[in-house]
Amino acid sequence: MDSARTIARRLGVSEEAVELCRASDLIDLHIDTFIPPRLWGYDPLVRHSGGPVGRHWFGHLDLYRMADGGLDGAMWSITTNPFRRPRKRWAVFQRNLKRFEALVARSKGHLQFARNITEYEDAKARGAQAVMLAIQGGNALDAAPSGIHSVKKDLVTRVTIVHLTNSSLGATSAPFSYLRGDKGLSQAGRVFIERMNEARVFVDLAHIHERGFWNAVDAHDASQPLIATHTGVDGVRKHWRNLDDAQIKAIADTGGVVGIIFSTAFLSRRGGPVDGRMIVEHMEHVMNVGGEGVASVGSDYDGAISPPRDMASGETYPRLVQHMLDAGWSEDRIRGVLGANYLASFEALRPR
Predict the structure, then answer these.
(1) Which residue range forms the structural domain that includes residue 194?
(2) Sign of CA dihedral 226, 299, 306, 113
(3) 260, 153, 170, 177: which is closest to 219 by C-alpha?
């Protein structure tokens, strides 16, 4: 890991921003860095300078740039291919889970699984980056004998119920939803959420259609926090991918958090900022609607996004902090958004 001064000079930010990143719990609620290894053998344990097309699509993260950026942990997703049949999806998920476990083992202690806050704190104390494993697309488990209970005990932290396509569980918020008559959560989706509640796994409402969102809120155990890990908000930029104020409040009411995505496609607005300030703008709206403890980081790095130019990779998290400082945010607010807000939800998820 390079020194704070070296990173500050490289990024054109203050040492204060770098040091605050490193002193805080910095947790990204959604990274897709397991996709490039599946596509072409990209190795996230080796330092890279970017992806095949610069800041676009993939190649945003590796272990070294994550460390330079001050990242302490992240929700790594195993993303579901919806075009396979259920049994094939389940078989492929099991193979990918083994590959992911092998990746963590190959890191020789630099990555460490964390299923609860105690394990997160242990990983941080060891100098490892905490891996909070997630499933993107609950239909990966359609053919699993016992649904979420079929996955290795105490390994998966969250499931994004619906991804970019309609599924057995419900409708997507993406334009493909028009292909489905019922935009709500299916009965299978309701049962799936009940099983996730039993397993104390985060129910992630990113990507789900608005009608399904509210069905999920009704089906969910309100004593557990709901989350939306990577999204923008309609209050800044109206878009099919973004949450409205009522949805933000519903998540806040459960003690959950909303992670703001770094994708310019969902954040940028006419006449608005063109750099990382657009991320801060969405975070501020979340806090204005739901309270100080609701906003979090959910970049979607390596998830086929185009981040702002100054946020092109994982080593640039301090630039986001610099934008927060320039906006006059207090240190407590910054620490909350970087990770403390999420950790409060993570602690609330722990079985009592």
Answers:
(1) 4-349
(2) negative
(3) 170
The model's confidence at residue 179, banded by pLDDT at 50, 70 and 90, is low
pLDDT, position 180: 66
From residue 190, alpha-carbon distances to 79, 143, 167, 171 in Å are: 21, 16, 13, 13
∠ at Cα 198 (148, 204), nearest 5°? Answer: 65
Quick one: three-class SS letters along the chain?
CCCHHHHHHHHCCCHHHHHHHHHCCCEEEEECCCHHHHHHCCCCCCCCCCECCECCECCCCCHHHHHHCCCCEEEEEEECCCCCCHHHHHHHHHHHHHHHHHHHHHCCCCEEECCCHHHHHHHHHCCCEEEEEEEECHHHHCCCCCHHHHCCCCCEEEEECCCCCCCCCECECCHHHHHCCCCCECHHHHHHHHHHHHHCCEEECCCECHHHHHHHHHHCCCCCCCEEEEECECCCCCCCCCECHHHHHHHHHCCCEEEECCCHHHHCCCCCCCCCHHHHHHHHHHHHHHCCCCEEECCCECCCECCCHHHCCHHHHHHHHHHHHHCCCCHHHHHHHHHHHHHHHHHHHCCC
Global pTM reads 0.97
DSSP-derived pairing of the beta strands 129-136 and 111-113: parallel
- CATH number, domain at 168? 3.20.20.140
Residue length of the chain: 352
So what's the pLDDT on residue 206?
A: 98
Cα(263)–Cα(293) distance, rounded to whole angstroms? 22
Look-up of token digits 């998820």? 349
The domain tally of the chain equals 1
**How would you label 230-251 residue by residue, b for 16+ Cβ within 10 Å and e otherwise?**
bbbbbbbbebebbbeeebbebb
pLDDT band at 30 (very low <50, low <70, confident <90, very high): very high
C-alpha distances (whole Å) from 163 to each of 37, 238, 351 are: 20, 19, 27
